[in-house]
Amino acid sequence: MTEDSAFGPATRIVHHSYTPPDGFVAPQPGVFKASTVIFPNVAAMRSREWKDKSGYTYGLHGTPTTFILEERLCALEGGLQCVLVPSGLAAIANVVLALLQPGDEVLIPDNAYGPNKDLANGELARFGIRHVLYDPLDPADLAARITAATRLVWLEAPGSVTMEFPDLCEQVRICRARGVTSALDNTWGAGLAFAPFDLVGDGSGNLAVDISVHALTKYPSGGGDVLMGSVITRDGALHMKIKLTHMRLGLGIAANDAEAVLRALPSIGLRYRAHDVAARRLALWMQQQPAVAQVLHPALPGAPGHAHWQTLCGAANGGDGAAAGLFSVMIDARYSQQQVDAFCDGLRLFKLGYSWGGPMSLVVPYQLASMRSWPASHLKPGTLVRFSVGLEDVEDLRRDLQQAMGRAFGAT
Fold first, then answer.
1. So what's the pLDDT on residue 55?
2. pLDDT tens, 328-363?
3. Residues 151-163: what's their mean pLDDT?
4. Is pLDDT at 184 greater than 90 in this prediction?
5. C-alpha to C-alpha distance for 72 and 82, rounded to whole angstroms
6. Does the pTM exceed 0.85?
7. Contacts of 309 (CB under 8 A, 6+ apart)
8. pLDDT at 300 over 90
9. Is the distance from CB of 229 to CB of 84 less than 8 angstroms?
10. Which tens digit of pLDDT belongs to each residue from 220-230?
11. Most buried of 5, 209, 295, 303 (most Cβ within 10 A)?
């Protein structure tokens, strides 16, 4: 009789002593799910450290699955440390709550991701933290708005919805010169269009953002079915501030979600390129349509900030450059909001829905006046519509755009 057989069946199931042999190797890492982590003895429980990934203490502080995902994301973006959070917005919140306190000030570009501004208007304002908006296309405006109270500057390349590409290198130089921490929303670049921790591309890291946040919901996941974010750094002290706040807030992710991102990561480069190629083809076609007053895509000559995109992203893909599969258009002001809405409703393959980076093409009409603090002279009058180009056949997508435009705006 074995030791296990002396117990009742329920106890034998819970405390079964079998351990599988070592040496199992497969393309995908194992999925470890745990809240409780078992220690061999009290000494190990008291001495084991989770902050440096040298051991496991509790599921919220990491498992082999999440540690592997963190390290692969660092390899993608060029960072050294990473924390995983439940969404891209949670990544933004993790950063500001770790670094700001009452009396501090944060600068946000006027074209930033809307929920970032909402967080500043809501919780940060209630905590006594002031926020100031700046012109993303004017580095001098950024420099002028930094004060002695400024502790953090948010950067976005390109801007959310209106897609202006800033002079990111100059913005980072300004932050460095003034001793202010810079945090980049790098969801669009995805670690593929440019290297946030090596903006000059010489491997020195002499010009780098301090923090890169990434909505893994988009391209790293790739399926439109996972919510997750990351915060990546290169500075150990900065990382520890973020990590300790991450722990105190109880931020965690599900092992199956980590598995989904790990499975998708090997194909991110192929998918990103496919989205890019299709989006540029459609953006160029849209430039020729009479109902379209302006196409906003940083890789297109004449688009706001195109020269800055060319400098930072133009050498990728053998000189073709790299860009996400997003673009926006300004529908000419002679068309009403009702007509624009009818155009979006009339699309068959482009579905109405937020987010991007998945296999299905999406469209969203925006009311720009409610999203910006001051008029942008580089944007032509009209109604803005943003497209996220998926992985469908690009000619099918073009025909879908054509038929919907014909119904809403007349012959094109």
1. 94
2. 999 999 999 999 999 999 999 999 999 999 999 999
3. 96
4. yes
5. 10
6. yes
7. 158, 165, 298, 299, 303, 321, 323
8. yes
9. yes
10. 999 999 999 99
11. 209
Q: What region, left, alpha or beta, does residue 382 occupy, with left being phi > 0 and alpha being psi -120 to 50 degrees?
A: left
- Cβ atoms of 183 and 196 within 8 Å: the answer is no
CB distance 242 to 84 below 8 Å: no
Q: What is the mean pLDDT of the chain?
A: 95
- Relative to beta strand 351-352, strand 181-185 is unpaired
* Residue 92 vs residues 81, 175, 179, 342: alpha-carbon distances, Å: 16, 18, 20, 35
What torsion do the CA atoms of 236, 242, 246, 247 make, to the nearest 10 degrees?
A: 50
Strand partners, 333: none
Sign of the Cα torsion 107, 112, 115, 118 reads positive
Residue whose entry in the numeric block shows the structure tokens 């296309």:
137
Query: Tokens for 293?
Result: 């007053």
**In whole angstroms, what is the distance from residue 133 CA to residue 372 CA?**
10
User: Which residue carries 């809403």 as its tokens?
Assistant: 408
CA distances from 74 to 50, 71, 195 (A): 18, 5, 11
Whole-number pLDDT of residue 411:
62
**Phi and psi for 162 in degrees, rounded to 5?**
-90, -10
Instruction: Specify the pLDDT at position 1.
Output: 40
Distances (CA, A) of 104 to 148, 152, 178, 196, 200: 9, 9, 15, 25, 30
User: Using only C-alpha atoms, what is the Rg of the chain?
Assistant: 24
Give Cα separations from 36 to 15, 64, 197, 230, 281 (angstroms). Answer: 14, 14, 36, 23, 51
Q: Which amino acid is at 356?
A: W
